[in-house]
Write the structure tokens for this entry.
Amino acid sequence: MATDLTPRVTTELDYAGAERLTMNMGPQHPSAHGVFRAILTLEGETVVGVDAVIGYLHRCHEKLAETLAYVQYPSIASKTDYVAAMTSELAYVMAAERIAKIEVPKRAEHLRVLVAELQRVASHCLWLGTWCMDMGGALGGGATIFLYCIRERELVLDLFEKLTGARLLYGFHQVGGVRYDMPEGFAADCRQTIDLIEARLLEYEAMLEDNTFFLMRTKGVGVISRQLAEEVGISGPLLRASGVDFDLRRDAPYSSYQDFQFKVPVETDGDCLARYRVRMVEFRESIRIVRQILDGLPEGPISSRPGVKAVAQVRVPKGETYTRVEGPRGEVGCYLIADGGPKPYRMKWRGASFSNLAVLPFIIPGHSVADVVAIMGSVDPVFGEVDR
Amino acid sequence: MIVPFIKGFANTFKHMFRKPISVNYPDEKVPTFPRYRGKQVLMRDENGLEKCVACGLCAVACPADAIYLEAAENNGTVQAGPRYAELYQIHKTRCIFCGYCEEACPVSAIFMGKDYELAVYSNQDFIWDKTELLVAAPGTPPASQAR
């Protein structure tokens, strides 16, 4: 195919006398949170169109699942959404357990909720830090919040290292339970860490909440109306910031979420500030759930096959199911078809970021280029999960 | 208008008197926790014989296909049992440090060690073989010190 070498000149003079400009943002853009290419059409400083190009991080996760046994894949599942590795592992093992009708012991269920909520805290820390850094110097040196948030996230990762032996990609879940029980002194460390993070949240809020520049960058920027949110099918904090009161943890309880009390924050504005507020409340609610778990952790086995190694094969009969989990970014779903063999016949991920990203072309046009990064940061995409 | 800025700067100012959390990395190492899953180690038993019996369960359990081994009968020249792994390779760039090899091993021959400094200068060095994985035989200097 012959390549068109003429420089691309667009001469649509349909607005006040200047020409439109096509600009690539990404795939290697420092504020894109990953390899994401947005083709922006600009009229001066204003964005009038966005084309999203994804797929730079595609790793054939769904095909890979067909080649790995049910006991092997959980350690790989964490690599779809590497910022919140625990949630995708949970979705996969839940799907296998539902088909195989495996009863998971109560202690394992509580440990799963514990790590899922700690993971939400860690993921939201990373979101807040990177988002504030994207918006940059306006916040009195945007890297300040970033470093503070990373510092607190490290504490959660230390907890995960104590529990599982890994800091980012854990392999904590196994079909029928969890692989590791809490080590000596973990509960005390955990309490200390969440107390510290709760106190530090006040520091972040003191720096951001009333900051004029922060409000200018976020208030009324990237408004997702309730109708748009429902039509596009976004989920998670974005959906709740647009006024839809929906949280899978409460509305379709999985694992053992029915045992815990927590509030689901809802904001109606649908702008970046509303999304920030929703996530700040989620921080606290996650911490509250962690406290409840630590207070009443039941004794007992941590796996449905106590004493059996995690790599021992499980028998999953023929069947198919869809499980969904409320991850930090929204609904993480796993559709699993089993044909009775040691490996799944087919597996499909529903990535929360993938669906959330679909809202960008509706909300970005009309904003300036600087707002694009603010909006994208507030959507909180993780491209490992988008491309899978 | 000005009050929020004062609040924010007071916050950052307070941090000047806090203990720094950063670590002077190459000089000062971050300690790992007991469960840390780092570079694998092949063990020897109390008589100094290699524990590995080359059953290949680790290679089967490995989700990333990182382990390759060849079994051989011991003709008496190797400090090992009657059947041992003549060739035992772990591909460093494939290994995901999940720890399934450790769980699968029936004779507790392979363990996840604590070494996390795994950078190398050449792509030939991406494969760990027995000289790097196996703990040194009693009475011999460790062979894996060459970097």
Observations:
- The helical segments of chain B are 3-15, 57-61, 100-104, 130-133.
- The longest strand of chain B covers residues 83-91.
- The radius of gyration of chain B is 22 Å.
